[in-house]
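Re: weekly structure request thread

Next one in the queue (95 aa):
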Amino acid sequence: MRVEVAYARPEGQTLLTLDLPPGSSVAEAVTASGVLERHPEIDWPGTPVGIFGRKVSPERLLREGDRVEIYRPLTIDPKEARRRRAAARDTQGGL
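Done, posted below.
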């Protein structure tokens, strides 16, 4: 079964395609992909993962064509980022 493992950083994305036996899990795909060796900053197994943008458990079984995504921690809370943008617009005379 062919799947992809993706990990994105600000400077670029790593996208790895692999063939795994049917019944393989998300965790097995992450380990088999070699992404943990390429990116030692990934705190595995504590890092959240998903498939096509939906958070899943590392134990979830994969299907043909799935894209496993390894998520980085947020650098800023999205609500705080919106507050800062709104404050900047207000000081610049925006709406």
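Residues 2-91 form a domain with the Ubiquitin-like (UB roll) fold (CATH 3.10.20.30). The chain has a mean pLDDT of 87.
Next request, please.
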